[in-house]
Predict the 3D structure of the following.
Amino acid sequence: MVIGSNQRLSFTGFWVLIVILSYPNGVAESQVVRGIFVFGDSLVDVGNNNYLSSIAKSNYYPYGVDFEYGPTGRFSNGKTFVDFIGKIMGLPYPLAFADPNTNGARLLGGVNYASAAAGILDETGQHYGQRYSLSQQVLNFESTLNQLRGIMGASNLTNYLSKSIAIMVFGSNDYINNYLMPSIYSSSFYYNPSQYANLLLNHYARQLLALYSVGLRNFFLTGIGPLGCIPNQRGSGQAPPGRCVDYVNQILGPFNEGLRSLVDQLNKRPGAMFVYGNTYGAVGDILNNPATFGFNVVDRACCGIGRNQGQITCLPFAMPCFNRNQYVFWDAFHPTEAVNAILARRAVYGSSTDCYPINMLNMTLY
């Protein structure tokens, strides 16, 4: 299985952080990031869906089998790559917005609004039940701002937001839980891939500008990864054994290329720093050269049922694989903790092919 060079764009990875000095071990000596605000889908959900009427949940074993707090609602065997970013930068895990205990002074380190099955479009993922779509996550952030304003006052809030980070992980569900499900959603009947990408980017841009307008200035936007290579798609039987579903990967190009271009437009705003994270390229490197990164299983999930262990995702109390660090995919849709660690390092220290226009470390000096 090879991902073509014309598809080397992005999977789902992003961030923006500000730090004065970083040591080789990755921990900041003089941290000036005030908070991390996470918006996205199940790749970075830390438990919001636990509080929603949704079948898209992961608050059960074996999810969290390698996480210090066990099953929390993270769709991984361990940490998400937002968790790793926080660890590198010496920041705490942002708390789930829907958790009733996320209030008062606990808001100051940041909040996670991400919701499994969420998309850029409001209707995306509706067959799973309740979820916080992008537009709802923006509204949820604005409710957090009202609380923060009461804690620190308007002028201090402006300074606080200018030194905080917005991490945005969106787009995957708009394809696998919308465009690629014609039996439920009609989007593929009305839009070709380029038109659909433009629809998504226009909706995305409006919400990004809404966040900018209320004070956020630093954004890390991840593109969409090679969805045609996840066990869910391999298990569909649409590609020969050992191959990714090429059509699925190809239709992502217009979105990823458009998001990278959108970064240039948004960076014309006063004080703004938007960065595009090319996780498609990073994940593509892992899939094309697994042994280099310590992996030997790239085509099936560590936990799942059916063809490629991807036809039915990880069920409660299912027995996962034992050699989890050798698997690229944890379940039918999500990477393992080992992959998340690599994506986080490339977001912070990566070359210009990983992050555009600069990586996170350089952004901390911006």
